[in-house]
Amino acid sequence: MHAKNIIWIIFNVLLAISVLFILPAQAQAKKVREYWIAAEKVTWNYAPTEKNLIESEGDLGVWGKTLAYTKYRYIGYTDGKYTTPVPQPEWAGILGPQIRAVVGDTIKVHFLNKTDRPLSMHPHGVFYQKDDEGADGGKGASIAPGARYTYTWVADEAAGPGPNDPSSVIWLYHSHVMAEEEMNLGLIGTIAITREGKARSQDDPTPRDVDQEFVSLFTIFNEENDEESGLKHTINGRIFGNLPGYETSLGKRVRWHLVALGNEVDNHTVHWHGQTVLAHGRRTDVIELMPASMMAVDMVPRSAGDWLFHCHVNDHMMAGMSTRWRVLP
């Protein structure tokens, strides 16, 4: 075969490969992703079973004195009618809907304040103009009760995974009109950003190199002016094992996104029984979190069982900052 023909064949093969793999990877990273999210006033129960599900013979102690409180939450909807909620996994608890994007995407959040006080949505990590900061002045800094605002955020390169990060990273979002009060009220959610070229598809921004992703918020909600009974030591807003849904199986590639918020007492040491995790190249089974920390760690479960998942600070364990994660055979 003539050399020129061979070169022409090789060129066309390479071109076909670029069309099949390279171009789709670039295309999937250029998308506008829309979310419809409302802030709503709800009644929240920190232990719906009214039982200590960690110790069968234990009780809820002083922390079970009052379990249901008025809270405020972010609720996701399918469209601008705000009538059909987006389903949440059981393990999400009090967390608002997870916002997802791929590096290069634009995020539009259509926010409706259905509560009785001005609120906002302030994101960490992503790029935004002043009006879309959701804090400290600008049009989106304080949305009145009954009003709407569309936030525009960009998942630029600086919002995505760094050189030593896994294929997706997590950022917090929360209300920032009176930030300390509103985070304590429950107005908290997360934004997951996937590295360019690592998403499952253009329509599915989840990373293709993991099978499951979980999010865990460690925070102490203060319900009664520092009275011990009102200090709810929670994982995603639940105490004493009342957070179900962390379920996986042997051999699955699992990513845990860990976040924390709160005060100086919110120094947490997150611990899994039965498994280790990989955190930026370090092997461990305890991750340190401080208020506003955000961390992604990976694991491949190696032992089946119903395992404890808790903060390893002694006072926090006693107050119920624990749940279970299940590994099926």
Q: What does it look like?
A:
- The protein is mostly beta strands.
- It has a single domain, classed as Immunoglobulin-like (Sandwich), CATH 2.60.40.420.
- The chain has helices spanning 3-27, 179-185, 314-318, and strands spanning 32-45, 68-77, 99-102, 106-113, 122-123, 148-154, 168-174, 188-194, 212-222, 231-235, 247-249, 254-260, 268-272, 277-279, 282-284, 286-289, 294-299, 305-311, 322-328.
- A hairpin with a 2-residue loop joins β14 (277-279) and β15 (282-284).
- The longest helix is centred in the N-terminal third of the chain and has 25 residues, at 3-27.
- The protein is globular.
- The N and C termini lie far apart (56 Å).
- 42% of the residues are buried.
- The percentage helix is 10-25%
How large, in whole angstroms, is the Cα Rg? 22 Å
- What's the average pLDDT? 93
Shape: globular
CATH class: Mainly Beta
CATH superfamily: Cupredoxins -  blue copper proteins
Structural class based on helices, strands and sheet pairing: mainly beta
- How do the strands of the widest beta sheet line up side by side? 11-19-18-13-16
- Low-confidence segments, given as residue ranges, are 15-29
Largest sheet: 5 strands, mixed
What fold name stands as the CATH topology? Immunoglobulin-like
| SSE pattern | HEEEEEEEHEEEEEEEEEEEHE
Number of domains: 1
What CATH architecture label applies?
Answer: Sandwich
Amino-to-carboxy terminus distance: 56 Å
The count of DSSP E runs of length 2 or more, i.e. the number of strands, is: 19
Strand content: 35-45%
Number of helices: 3
